[in-house]
Known about the structure:
By secondary structure, this protein is an alpha+beta fold.
Amino acid sequence: AEYGEGKYRIWADIIGAGDDLIVYVGGGDKPHIGSASIFEKGGKLLTISIPGHEDHIVSDEAAERITEATGRRCIVIVGIHVNSASKSEIKTLVENSTKCVKILLDKV
């Protein structure tokens, strides 16, 4: 799935791992690994985030949404980077990520 254009384009891929799901959400100027969030049925969230990165904002929300929608445990790895992003640009990237995850869920 993907949403947005240019440096604001976000994409997401999903693979099955037995009964669980692995999702990568990337975008911006330099995709990378910035955070990983695992959400389990029943509401337990575990997050690892690289210091100085804000990717957990996206991975936490996406992991919870995907688990609730599918009933499957899910890990979401996120790496979105735009050089010297303003608060407005970060807001756009987060919004595009939310829309991208919705598109992904519509396909699952």
